[in-house]
Each structure stands twice: as structure tokens, then as C-alpha cells.
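Sample 3 of the quickstart, ligand fructose -6-phosphate:
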Amino acid sequence: MEIIILRSAESVAAMAGELVAELLRVQPAAVLGLATGSTQLSLYRNLVEKYRDGGISFRGTTSFNLDEYLGVASENPQSYRTYMNREFFGCIDIDKRNTFLPCCGEDENPRLVGPRYEQKIREAGGIDLQLMGIGYNGHIGFNEPSSSLRSRTRVKTLTKQTLKDNSRLFAKNEFQPKLAITMGIATIMDARRILLLATGTNKAEAVRKTVEGPVSAMCPASVLQMHERVTVLLDEAAAAELSNRDYYDWTHLQNEALKDRFSDK
Ligand code: F6R
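Result:
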């Protein structure tokens, strides 16, 4: 794992934006794995700015989101499809027909959505770069603690903790979904590269367990220790509980000289 600790949440978004831009320069038709949530917002703003400045184009890219609520129509303002259209797809030149979320239509069997989504990812050639955040409880996508480390895209029940964490985004009497369809942990692990972003004090414990704890289904993100190419971008607050901090900073200094991180040359 490459652990990079930066001064602020803005610097995390800026560096993540640089890494995505680097990838698109080398591979304009990259397949991107995307996430929603508050942490990703500044990254999307950064990428939209880069696109508007003419620095990057998403025309050739295809995207697959990690998850979508079940029981919420795509047009619903609370759906992740709406979030993605509003915050990202609607602001860049990506062909929306090449943007996918694991949505379940009203008349569809939710159990069939997962295998179909996996098939689509395979047909696209697999995910080149998966962007993601992390839950306070260590979830990635909506793979909650105790999720099988070999899971594939499927329906998951959200924990009470996740519902509480996300309740801030729902009005008092608004329907808040308790189920979601999420890429599985094995699906995420198939991505060629992974970029995990975490900011803020309330992520510090999950980050410590992910980076320095044992690999355990009780902290799903810890499985990333088994992936060959993961970069973890943290602000100071999210890194506060790491005990091996000196080494991460030292390694980052040495690696700064390395250019073209996404070129395999
Ligand atoms: C969302 C997702 C979740 C979030 C995580 C962090 O698509 O996959 O795993 O990344 O819950 O959310 P924020 O950034 O809102 O703290």
C-alpha cells in the first residue's frame, strides 16, 4: 500500500485529481470505478475544473459506480445516479451511455442485477482505476463489516450505523433506503489500481484498521492490504491514529521523484 498524508482535504482532492488526469493522459479510454459520498465531492469538482480548463477529457472513458440504493428510482433526487449526474457526469464530456450504476428497475429481480453488472464490467475490459471512500466502520462500497471478502456485486443490508451516518442527507420524514446493490469486495479487488480517499478525524480509526490492522471482514477495507496497487490519500486528521507515520512520509518523499505513476513503461 502506498500511504500519502497531505496537509488538508483540499490537497487530497488535488492530488487525486492529478492522478486521475495522469491516467487519462496515458489511457484516454480508461475504465473508471467511481464512488459517491461527501469525500468524493471535492475530487469531482477538481476534475470538472480540469475538464473546463481543457486539461482532460472523459470522452473515451467508461465508468462503473460502486453502489446504488435499492428501492429508489434513478430519477429520485436521493439516488446515486442523480448524485453522479449532478456532481460529475452532467459537468464533463463523458458519454452518459457509458456510465453505469448497479440500478434495479421497479420490475426487475434485484438478485439478477449483480451478475449482470459483473458481466458488463468484464465486457468493458475490467476497471483500470477504482476511486473510493471509506465508511466510519471500514466499509468500502456498501460492503459492511462481516461482508465476505470474496463477495461479488449483490444486495446488501446497510448497518444501523451507516443509516445513522447518512441520515444527515435525508429530510425528517423522507424514505431512507436500508438496502443497496454494491460491487462486492472481490469485484473491487479486481480493479487494476485503487485510489482510496479519506479525510477528517472521524475516519481515523477506520484508516488505522485498514492500513495497520489485521485483514478482517470486520473491517472490509483492510482487504486492500492484499491488493498490488493501492494508493491511500489521507489528510492529517484521517492519518492521526497511524503508528507507522514516519515511514509513510519518508516513502512519499522518496517516491515524489517518480513520475508517470500510471504508465507501465
Ligand atoms: C459511496 C460508497 C461509500 C462511501 C463511504 C464514505 O458510493 O461507496 O463507501 O465512500 O460511505 O462516504 P463519505 O465520503 O460520505 O464519508
